[in-house]
């Protein structure tokens, strides 16, 4: 059975998977598999990515046309998974080892493609991703800064605090005092 594989930008969670599946089904397509960053359609409903793009764009998603853009989105998805790896692994891999294992490509190649298409290095994107996760944890007000730093594999609360200020322009205490903490959606990071 021949299928059409669509690469989709801004899919970052299980709700995004459900949303894309529902959008495609409502438009008359039959997705055989939808996962973070992609949707596969069966041969009875092949789709030209250009024709599907407006519908997805209206819901906050976008179809990725070029190979470099597709790889960049796959790297972003892998980095979200890497944060979970950092949290749960006893001896976590480095970012470069995690990505080279995942993509069977050199880190140099992945880094060049990512930097060129995202206009941001992998390292800076990962820092932004981590800070957004820290903002989420701070907004719950269930952990101390030291506990959050340990959870996110920072060397200390001070290191986390310094990086937080560098990325957001605000201190952690300013963020906590703010009644409406401003968090970014993952698709706004790059």
Automatic annotation (TrEMBL):
**Sorted alphabetically, which Pfam families does this protein's record hold?**
HTH_18
**HTH araC/xylS-type domain location, by residue?**
77-178
Superkingdom of the organism of origin = Bacteria
Q: Keyword annotations for this protein?
A: DNA-binding, Transcription, Transcription regulation
Q: What is this protein called?
A: AraC family transcriptional regulator
Protein's organism:
Hymenobacter endophyticus
């Amino acid at each position: 059975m021949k299928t059409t594989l669509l690469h989709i930008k801004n899919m970052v969670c299980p709700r995004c998977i459900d949303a894309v599946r529902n959008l495609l089904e409502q438009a008359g397509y039959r997705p055989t598999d939808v996962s973070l960053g992609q949707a596969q359609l069966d041969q009875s409903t092949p789709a030209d990515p250009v024709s599907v793009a407006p519908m997805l764009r209206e819901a906050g998603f976008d179809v990725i046309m070029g190979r470099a853009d597709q790889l960049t989105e796959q790297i972003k998805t892998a980095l979200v998974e890497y944060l979970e790896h950092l949290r749960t692994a006893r001896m976590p891999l480095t970012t470069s080892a995690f990505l080279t294992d995942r993509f069977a490509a050199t880190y140099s190649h992945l880094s060049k493609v990512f930097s060129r298409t995202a206009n941001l290095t992998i390292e800076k994107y990962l820092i932004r991703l981590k800070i957004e996760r820290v903002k989420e944890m701070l907004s719950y007000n269930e952990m101390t800064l030291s506990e959050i730093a340990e959870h996110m594999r920072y060397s200390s609360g001070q290191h986390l605090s310094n990086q937080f200020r560098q990325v957001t322009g605000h201190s952690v205490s300013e963020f906590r005092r703010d009644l409406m903490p401003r968090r970014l959606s993952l698709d706004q990071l790059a």
